[in-house]
Amino acid sequence: MLTGMSQKELAKKVGISRSVLNEVEAGYRDKILRPTLLKLLTVLDKDILCDDYYRFVLEQEEKLKLLVEKYGLRKLARMIGVDASSLDHWKRGDYQISRRYFEKILELNLLSQDKT
């Protein structure tokens, strides 16, 4: 509505499927791929589109790098309940962190302690 376009028009303009756009808009997606988010940001305002999770996705590598430096890879992985290899992939940007694990990081108050 904010763009004056239908979902179909917006999806076509940014090059994603209408179903993905619908799920993002409705908040049904557990994770969003960074390339998809960047496509949407070519048309939508960051302050309108991005919640805390989406903002984290945009800076995932840097934020996780700082947390790994502070806690160590294995300790941080145990804290959030993932394999160290998964965390390392997230830190390198090979894979996208899911909302579930982002929320675990928030729950543990790790980001505010780092002021990242």
UniProtKB/TrEMBL annotation:
Highest taxon, organism lineage: Bacteria
Signal sequence interval, chain numbering: none
Pfam families according to UniProt: HTH_3
Annotated HTH cro/C1-type domain residues: 4-49
Xref: Gene3D superfamilies: lambda repressor-like DNA-binding domains
InterPro entries: Cro/C1-type_HTH (IPR001387), Lambda_DNA-bd_dom_sf (IPR010982)
SMART domains the UniProt entry points to: HTH_XRE (SM00530)
GO molecular function terms noted in the UniProt entry: DNA binding
Protein name per Swiss-Prot or TrEMBL: Helix-turn-helix protein
